[in-house]
Amino acid sequence: MVTEVMVMTCVVRCNLNLLLCLYVPVVMVMNDVVMVVNDVVMVVTDVVVVVNDVVMVVTDVMVTDVVR
Protein backbone atom coordinates (compact mmCIF):
# COMPACT_ATOMS: atom_id res chain seq x y z
CA MET A 1 0.00 0.00 0.00
CA VAL A 2 2.75 2.42 0.96
CA THR A 3 4.72 1.67 -2.22
CA GLU A 4 1.59 2.26 -4.33
CA VAL A 5 1.12 5.68 -2.74
CA MET A 6 4.81 6.44 -3.31
CA VAL A 7 4.52 5.48 -6.99
CA MET A 8 1.35 7.52 -7.40
CA THR A 9 2.87 10.63 -5.86
CA CYS A 10 5.95 10.20 -8.05
CA VAL A 11 3.79 9.87 -11.17
CA VAL A 12 1.77 12.94 -10.19
CA ARG A 13 4.95 14.92 -9.55
CA CYS A 14 6.47 13.85 -12.86
CA ASN A 15 3.28 14.84 -14.67
CA LEU A 16 3.24 18.20 -12.92
CA ASN A 17 6.85 18.81 -13.87
CA LEU A 18 6.09 17.91 -17.48
CA LEU A 19 3.09 20.23 -17.48
CA LEU A 20 5.18 23.04 -16.05
CA CYS A 21 7.91 22.42 -18.60
CA LEU A 22 5.33 22.65 -21.38
CA TYR A 23 3.45 25.54 -19.80
CA VAL A 24 6.37 27.93 -19.36
CA PRO A 25 7.48 28.01 -23.03
CA VAL A 26 3.89 28.33 -24.18
CA VAL A 27 3.41 31.32 -21.89
CA MET A 28 6.67 32.85 -23.12
CA VAL A 29 5.66 32.37 -26.74
CA MET A 30 2.25 33.88 -26.07
CA ASN A 31 3.95 36.83 -24.41
CA ASP A 32 6.17 37.30 -27.47
CA VAL A 33 3.14 37.12 -29.75
CA VAL A 34 1.33 39.72 -27.66
CA MET A 35 4.38 42.01 -27.83
CA VAL A 36 4.60 41.63 -31.60
CA VAL A 37 0.89 42.32 -32.01
CA ASN A 38 1.29 45.38 -29.81
CA ASP A 39 4.17 46.61 -31.98
CA VAL A 40 2.12 46.07 -35.13
CA VAL A 41 -0.79 47.98 -33.62
CA MET A 42 1.53 50.87 -32.73
CA VAL A 43 2.95 50.96 -36.26
CA VAL A 44 -0.54 50.85 -37.76
CA THR A 45 -1.68 53.73 -35.57
CA ASP A 46 1.43 55.69 -36.59
CA VAL A 47 0.63 55.06 -40.25
CA VAL A 48 -2.99 56.10 -39.69
CA VAL A 49 -1.84 59.33 -38.04
CA VAL A 50 0.52 60.08 -40.94
CA VAL A 51 -2.18 59.30 -43.52
CA ASN A 52 -4.57 61.51 -41.59
CA ASP A 53 -2.04 64.37 -41.66
CA VAL A 54 -1.49 63.92 -45.40
CA VAL A 55 -5.24 63.92 -46.03
CA MET A 56 -5.62 67.11 -44.00
CA VAL A 57 -2.82 68.81 -45.92
CA VAL A 58 -4.24 67.69 -49.27
CA THR A 59 -7.72 68.91 -48.38
CA ASP A 60 -6.25 72.22 -47.18
CA VAL A 61 -4.45 72.64 -50.49
CA MET A 62 -7.59 71.76 -52.44
CA VAL A 63 -9.66 74.20 -50.38
CA THR A 64 -7.17 77.04 -50.92
CA ASP A 65 -7.11 76.20 -54.64
CA VAL A 66 -10.90 76.35 -54.77
CA VAL A 67 -10.92 79.64 -52.86
CA ARG A 68 -8.43 81.14 -55.34
Order of helices and strands: H
Helix content: over 70%
- Give a count of the beta strands, DSSP E runs of length 2 or more: 0
Tell me the strand percentage band. Answer: under 5%
Low-confidence stretches: none
Determine the structural class based on helices, strands and strand pairing. mainly alpha
DSSP helical segment count: 1
Radius of gyration: 29 Å
Biggest β-sheet strands, sense, barrel = none
N-to-C span: 99 Å
Averaged pLDDT: 88
What is the 3D shape? rod-shaped
What does this structure look like?
- The chain is mostly helical and 68 residues long.
- It is built from one helix and no strands.
- It has one helix spanning 2-67.
- The protein is rod-shaped and about 100 Å long.
- The termini are far apart.
- The model has no long low-confidence stretch (mean pLDDT 88).
Keywords:
68 residues; mainly alpha
What secondary-structure arrangement, pairings included, does this model have?
Blueprint: H1 2-67
